[in-house]
Amino acid sequence: xxxxxxxxxxxxxxxxxxxxxxxxxxxxxxxxxxxxxxxxxxxxxxxxxxxxxxxxxxxxxxxxxxxxxxxxxxxxxxxxxxxxxxxxxxxxxxxxxxxxxxxxxxxxxxxxxxxxxxxxxxxxxxxxxxxxxxxxxxxxxxxxxxxxxxxxxxxxxxxxxxxxxxxxxxxxxxxxxxxxxxxxxxxxxxxxxxxxxxxxxxxxxxxxxxxxxxxxxxxxxxxxxxxxx
Length: 229
What we know:
Blueprint: H1 2-30, H2 36-59, H3 61-68, H4 76-103, H5 110-133, H6 163-179, H7 185-209, H8 213-219
Helix pairs in contact: 1-4, 2-3, 2-5, 4-7, 5-6, 6-7
């Protein structure tokens, strides 16, 4: 019991630290809390993530556990890509606040901001659909032998092999427009490139190490975009 209590306390501290850091990266560069677009996005994010966590607790607690705990057999290249991704995500948040609010370098029209916010909807829906269909959808690249890892071929996986990444890419490209910063497109595009690289490396790993995946690639030929790639 003491060990579990300590573990829960550590998780709570990490969560609080993450929230504080997240808010700081938004509002310190902006120099103000009066940023309606940021608050709309934060509220949408909190509601969406909370909804997914509640759904996973009820319907797929093993996947929730998989995505919330540290794993040992994660590929080294994936650890590096994740660190680089986090770095550029932080850069994107800072650049957006500096550009859209503090210095107002970009002049993004309202219709593009609305377009950006609407972009989060298909991005989230596609990501959740992938998570709902694939109980092995870890947040890191590893072969989950401890969970009986097998190939998922239902839902969006009938059309592309990495649908979650499409959702993330859509969200990343929507972010700069929604919050009103053209300059934030630079780190956003870099993040997209990182996920394309991750797609290639993960797909190669799955073909080499996951039973049945190579045969699956012969049926579903496209990694991210149907009839393109």
